[in-house]
Amino acid sequence: MPRLLRLCLLISLLYNPFSAKGQMGNATVGARGVSLGGAAVTLPDVWALSNNPAGIAALKSLELGAYAHNRFSIKELTTVGLLAVYPTAKYGTIGVEVQRFGGELYNEQRLGIGLAHQLGVVRLGLKADLLQVRVKEWGSRKAVALSMGLQSDLLPKLTFGAHIYNLNQAKLAQFEDERVPTVMKIGLSYQAATKVLLVLEAEKELAFPVAVKGGVEYRVMPALGLRTGFNTGTRSGTAGVDIKFKQFQVAYALGAQNQLGMSNYLSIGYKLEKEKRP
Description:
By secondary structure, the chain is mostly beta strands. It has helices at about 5-15, 30-35, 50, and strands spanning about 65-70, 80-90, 90-100, 105-120, 120-135, 140-155, 160-165, 170-175, 180, 185-195, 195-205, 210-220, 225-230, 235-245, 250-255, 260-270. It has a single domain, classed as Outer membrane protein transport protein (OMPP1/FadL/TodX) (Porin, Beta Barrel), CATH 2.40.160.60. Helices cover about 10% and strands about 60% of the residues. The chain is globular, with a radius of gyration of 18 Å.
């Protein structure tokens, strides 16, 4: 991508010093969800702590996750994060997430704590994120964003998911009533075959039109999965692969956008207990 276009993209990010962009809009976390076009609201995995906290209620043991996302090969558009999810017998499933986005001039930090419960075929989750936006020579702002999510197994092979991020419409600055984006997601996933999962999702950020996201996951074998997806909001296509080795899962996703170029996503998950083979 030409340097001028990269520079314009970065300037647009920094134009309003406390604008709620970057990762503040609840971008999909984890290479699995990213490679499905970002349609992750129905997925019950460790990454659900960020994508839809209800999903962590399905986890049966301690799980850890680490991820790194780089957009358009621009160093300043890199996100890194760590997650830990632990199911308890008394309090439900608890999760903690730390995340950093940006570079020296502009960066965002997030500390999130989530709690989820399984109630029959329904999973409910809540999360609070302490957010900080910092701009060099301008200082920083902090806000707390509250989120809630739901997942339900409507049929043995059909799952429904819904998530509202920043339902309290947290404010970052008084200037132009600058707020953290409020994002609503709703979606379905369908296990079309033993090895095939279909996902479809609609996302609405208050200031933007509805975006439709979807994808297909195919498990070549238990240890190897392939995925592809689309996102009308970003006008991008995605593809990805994951490999499972003992208690580890390593996933990679590639995103392509005609005007801006390629983005790379890598995530590593770890389960304390080994999965039982079917």
